[in-house]
Amino acid sequence: MSFRQTKRDRQGPRFLAGLAAILAAMWMCAMAWPAAAEPIRRLGQNPRGLALGGTGMSYADDEMGLYYNPAGLASSNKIWVEVLPIALESSDDGITFIRDKAAAGDSNIAQASDVTDLIRDGIDKDFHYRVFTYPTAIVSFGRGLSFGAGAFVELEADLQFHNQATPELDAYYRNDQGLAAGLAFPIAQGRVLFGLSARNIKREVGEGTIGSAELAVAAANDNLDLAKELDLASGTGTGYDVGLIYRLETLSALRSQFALTVQNAGDTDLGAAGTIPQEVSIGYSSRPRFGPLVQTLLAFEYRDVTYDATADSSYDKRLHVGFELGVLPMDPVTSLATFRVGFGSGGPSYGVELAFWHFFSIQYVYYEQEYGDVSGEDRRKRHILQFNLIGF
Prior knowledge:
By secondary structure, the protein is an alpha+beta fold. It contains seven helices and 17 strands. The protein has helices at residues 12-32, 47-51, 92-103, 115-121, 212-221, 226-230, 315-318; strands at residues 80-90, 127-133, 136-140, 146-162, 168-187, 192-210, 233-247, 257-263, 268-269, 275-276, 279-286, 294-302, 319-329, 335-344, 347-356, 360-370, 379-390. The strands form two sheets. The chain has a 15-stranded antiparallel sheet that branches. A two-stranded antiparallel ribbon has the order 9-10. The longest helix has 21 residues, at 12-32.
């Protein structure tokens, strides 16, 4: 659907200024609300969305529609292939640990090869690691009908040691892998995009506290086996998403749209590995034009409207705001250089991406997650580096 210029477009700057004021007020309100002790862990949170404050379902204009909002697949008007995207995520302490092991010439830096030193030096530190890859292809069949499919692997681990005298380890481990597919098409003369997607997920997950006796054995054997200590549960299930995007015809220069998604509709049962709860979200995004050399994106989303993903009433866990500025656009999604900033998951975020003519891209993202019982009490820093071999 094309966005036609109308006389009402003159209201655009005033509307944009008002919207910015509203979003700023919501941001400040969110910062004042208390947060719960655990983050909302979602499958498929890609670097771009995290840099934009955890948004994604209100625009979903790239391959991540399979994970955020399947209706966004209909925004594609070509073949889009992500050959080998690899995202590496870590905390500050996690980066320091790997850097120190590498500097010491330890080639086995992916494992706790010196458990005694790790326990001694890791008391009250935050060791967090996540690896995510999601090769995907989207094919447009014309008139907005699009199909997308892909595979994904996501590994995540959180480790925190406590008590110097009698050390204990709070640990979380998750290994997700599977396939995703989705279909999207326009309705109501192109004003509404409708999408459906499914994900088959195989999960291994474990969480618990490893006591000092178990850690002493691990230190003696120089081998900390998380899978064994946490007694991982495994299971398989299929989750379904439904998404809508409504394109606003008024103020067409702003290219505004509203979105509604139901992710993991009816809950996704993974057997012994637990359940991924249903999550209903709403959002708004806008792409105001400021000339041919730049493109922008403003997104505001409120996720988990029905409080199914978590029972706590933390508004800052649900409020997500992001702004993107692309310089020298190559298509409606990709620019030579893109700068992003946002707020979500209890803290600020930002990122930068460089794309080399649809062949290769690299991006860095910083964001924060809130773990504390009171907002700001335990805000943990996260860093992501992604390399992406783009097909066409």
